[in-house]
Specification:
This protein has about 220 residues and is α+β, with helices and mostly antiparallel strands. The chain folds into 2 domains: about 90 residues, Pseudouridine synthase (2-Layer Sandwich), CATH 3.30.2350; about 120 residues, Pseudouridine synthase (2-Layer Sandwich), CATH 3.30.2350. About 15% of the residues lie in helices and about 35% in strands. The protein contains 4 helices and 10 strands; from the N terminus they run ββααβαβββββαββ. The relative contact order is 0.18. The N terminus is likely disordered.
Length: about 220
Amino acid sequence: METASPQSAPQVLATFMDWMVVNKPAGWHSVQQEGSEGSSIEAWLRTNEPHAAALDEAGLCHRLDLWTSGCLAVALTPEAHERLRHAFSQAGSGVRKIYLALAGKGLSNDGRFRLHFESRYKRSAKVSVGESGSAWSAGRCIWHVQRRGPGAHDLVQVELIGPGRRHQIRAGLAHLGHPLAGDTLYGGEPLATLSGPALHAWKLTVDGVEVESALPPALA
């Protein structure tokens, strides 16, 4: 089981008329976990953002894994919450999510995959990946290697195409033979400087507006 150890406090990256973007630190849950003592963005929002406090999940419009840092969209009104939740769940909605990852060396400079992601069984932390499956389980990504590292990993830009599936980038790149640094769940090399997978939600575009979160020092 992955356990959280908060590394820093969340920050508001940008605020618009009825929504905003929060920078989630690695080691924070997106939503409050029942029975968990770990920090969550949901609890932080209920304390620090009165407009979001009364909304379901404090206005969160999507989620990031525990150890994934970066951009999270938060609605500030019930109408925006409904609209943005729908946008994040629909292909072709104009929402763009671009990540940075430290992936095992050897990926081509540019590429893409279309794979199928399904939970193995209840309580399993892992998802299974296949070349074929049902339409609802399909996930697509495109990537570009930004920088070749001197060690065992390269810095890779990955964009989710469509709403995304659970662990899509982590499990997808591991399936291709290039697991993320620190992602021991999917066969990645453990690193002393990382407590979990080296994945950062770098850029988020909503309503034609792009917000960027700087790469954290642990990945830089």
